[in-house]
Write a structure and sequence with these properties.
InterPro entries: DUF6197 (IPR045677). The protein has 147 residues and is mainly α. It contains 5 helices and no strands. It has one domain. The radius of gyration is 17 Å and the shape is globular.
């Protein structure tokens, strides 16, 4: 780049970037189950412990979001892409649904929410899964290692 050229002012943020930001958020601010954010955190608390989906929402919006429907168009698309990458990873590593002996789905709550809320789940498992999902997204979508 020549000294007279202006450097790019925008950088594309990928679903992998957002998943890593969500993992970092959980590591720094804590993890919770059964709701997007710790139900005991005051509504005006900016960095409450979050579930996996809540952390992805904060990574996308840059602030606490009570429900993904509150996100604007571009941010909502980023949220859904990151959440979709997370679900794809979970589906290939630890399916989040139960199947009976005949192969029929018996638990239709196939979501990262039910996976996050499993009573046996730990914060470290959630953080590790978010990071691994990011690595998998990069592996599938990277071109020569660049995002």
């Amino acid at each position: 780049m020549k000294a007279t050229q202006k450097p790019p002012t925008t950088v594309e943020v990928t679903p992998a970037d957002l998943l890593r930001m969500a993992a970092l958020y959980l590591r720094r601010h804590g993890w919770t189950q059964s709701s997007y954010y710790d139900i005991y955190a005051p509504a005006d608390f900016l960095t409450p412990p979050a579930c996996a989906a809540g952390a992805i929402g904060i990574a996308c919006a840059g602030h606490r979001v009570e429900h993904f429907s509150q996100l604007d168009g571009g941010t909502l698309a980023d949220y859904l892409a990151a959440l979709g990458a997370f679900v794809d990873y979970l589906d290939t590593t630890t399916p989040v649904f139960a199947v009976d002996e005949g192969g029929f789905v018996i638990d239709e709550n196939t979501s990262p929410y039910s996976w996050n809320d499993d009573p046996a789940r730990t914060a470290e498992q959630v953080i590790t899964a978010l990071q691994a999902a990011a690595d998998e997204w990069d592996r599938l979508h990277g071109q020569g290692g660049e995002n």
